[in-house]
Amino acid sequence: MAGMTTGHRLGPLDDIPVGEGRAYAVGDLMIAVFRLRGGGVRAVSAVCPHAGGPLADGLVDRRLVVCPLHQHTFDLSTGCSTTGQPPLTVYPVRVDADDQLVLEM
Ligand code: FES
């Protein structure tokens, strides 16, 4: 599990349907990775800071995720809430040449 500088492989990109999110356990962290409709992936902390909702199950558009529990919203690029909640942690994530999701940490 110890991260090398090459990053931490999460699995195939195709594990995430386009326009949806999926939660991954990475060490002690839960990280939600979203596959955006317009292309690209985003990774943020998976637990909603409002009351612990599962953000990976939230609806996403090109920029925001909406928590399924009480509909607070967060910008997936900055982690900032647009509805006054504490921010999410944003993690650098990429897709490698083998279409694997790689978390840079
Ligand atoms: S737990 Fe996410 S909005 Fe309340």
Can you put this structure into words, describing what you see?
0% of the residues lie in helices and 38% in strands. With 105 residues, it is mainly β. The protein has a single domain, classed as 3-layer Sandwich (Rieske Iron-sulfur Protein). The strands form three sheets. The chain has a four-stranded antiparallel beta sheet, with no helix packed on it. It starts with 7 loop residues before the first strand and ends with a strand. Bound molecules: FE2/S2 (inorganic) cluster. Residues 48, 50-53, 67, 69-70, 72 line the site of FE2/S2 (inorganic) cluster (FES).
Ligand kinds: FE2/S2 (inorganic) cluster
> Termini separation (Å)?
11 Å
CATH superfamily caption: Rieske [2Fe-2S] iron-sulphur domain
Q: Report the average pLDDT across residues.
A: 94
Number of domains: 1
Helix segment count? 0
Largest sheet: 4 strands, antiparallel
In what range is the share of β-strand residues?
A: 35-45%
Helix-and-strand structural type: mainly beta
